[in-house]
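To illustrate the input format used throughout this study, we show a single complete record. The first block contains the structure-token representation of the backbone; no residue identities are included at this stage. The design step must infer an amino acid for every position from geometry alone.
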């Protein structure tokens, strides 16, 4: 596996929202069409005042794209085509820097690597006691949750989540 990290900077006057939308819906499909891409992750820089280390300010970059390829040859083929790709998007992506990196996992608390964290809040129906609602969450609902961990698609999670829960509870 070969990994490319690309630091990208939004053009002057482009909002964070417009940049993120363009990067996801316009730039990424063009990159995919070049071929070889196995996986892509976009990291959007959030405004902060945390970095006071005198280095390159975090706010000078708008995001970091992590792009995975099966081989270094595929990554090199992409880089040979990268200049025209970025030129076509220069009105939104003003600057970029490529880094070919080795990914070394140093610490991993969550082996599931789930890209989505979802919260749901429910109001119990008046005829159900608080004790019965808690029992439901600790048994039936927990079993549904365990089953969803084995699913690889969000559609499957939504389908299994809806079973049983909607019959027992109503949304607020």
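Output of the design step:
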């Amino acid at each position: 596996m070969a990994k490319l990290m690309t630091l990208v900077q939004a053009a002057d006057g482009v909002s964070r929202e417009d940049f993120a939308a363009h990067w996801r819906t316009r730039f990424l499909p063009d990159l995919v069409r070049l071929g070889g891409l196995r996986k892509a992750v976009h990291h959007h820089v959030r405004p902060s005042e945390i970095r006071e280390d005198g280095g390159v300010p975090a706010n000078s970059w708008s995001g970091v794209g992590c792009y995975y390829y099966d081989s270094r040859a595929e990554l090199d083929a992409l880089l040979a085509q990268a200049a025209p790709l970025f030129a076509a998007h220069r009105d939104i992506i003003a600057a970029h820097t490529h880094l070919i990196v080795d990914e070394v996992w140093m610490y991993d608390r969550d082996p599931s690597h789930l890209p989505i964290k979802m919260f749901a809040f429910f109001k119990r129906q008046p005829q159900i006691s608080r004790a019965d609602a808690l029992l439901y969450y600790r048994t039936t609902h927990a079993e549904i949750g365990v089953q969803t961990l084995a699913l690889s698609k969000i559609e499957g999670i939504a389908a299994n989540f809806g079973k049983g829960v909607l019959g027992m509870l109503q949304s607020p």
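Structural context for interpreting the output: The helical segments are 16-33, 72-88, 130-149, 154-168. Residues 114 and 149 are 10 Å apart (CA to CA).
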